[in-house]
Amino acid sequence: MVREQTANRERYGSYRCNYEVDGFLVLSVDAHFDEPQDLGRPPYQTSMVRRSISDDANPTVVPGEYPAQAWPGAASALTQCSFQGSPQDYYVAVVSTYPDEEEHALAMVSDIIQPVARYVEERCEEIAPDGEPK
């Protein structure tokens, strides 16, 4: 059974979507307004989902519309989301528990980070309740 959970409106414009298969987390997508993130470090969720990636692991640059980098099973991108008419940095992270093999895990997140970032950027204002980005 596949279950999708979409939630987290604690902060203006935050977005989280977890995909589970038979009760196990397979893919986590998280996006939020934030101070400029260091794209050279794995997303913070990586330590909870894929413990094999250290904070000082070298990322692979993922070419495309958004600045993005990836590690085996984790990727991040920086998009923009408008708040009160001015663009703000909007950080997107994808973390996956599958596949186990690092080369395939890197390829998988590298393939999806750009389309996920585009989707989240398109929805950022639509999912945001009233308030200010935090």
Identify the strand order in the major beta sheet: 1-2-3-7-6-5-4
The helical percent reads: 10-25%
Which stretches are low in confidence, meaning pLDDT under 50 for 5 or more residues running? none
- Please report the distance between the alpha carbons of the first and last residues: 35 Å
Inertia-based shape: globular
Strand content: 35-45%
Q: Radius of gyration, Cα only, in angstroms? A: 14 Å
Helix count, DSSP H or I runs of 4 or more residues: 2
Structural class: alpha+beta
What is the tally of beta strands? 7
Give the H and E element order: EEEHEEEEH
Mean pLDDT: 78
Largest sheet: 7 strands, antiparallel
Secondary structure blueprint with pairings:
Elements: E1 2-7, E2 15-21, E3 24-33, H1 46-49, E4 60-61, E5 68-71, E6 74-83, E7 86-96, H2 102-123
What does this structure look like?
It is a single chain. The protein has helices at residues 46-49, 102-123; strands at residues 2-7, 15-21, 24-33, 60-61, 68-71, 74-83, 86-96. It has 134 residues and is an alpha+beta fold. The protein has a seven-stranded antiparallel beta sheet. The chain is globular. The model has no long low-confidence stretch (mean pLDDT 78).
Properties at a glance:
134 residues; alpha+beta; 7-stranded antiparallel beta sheet
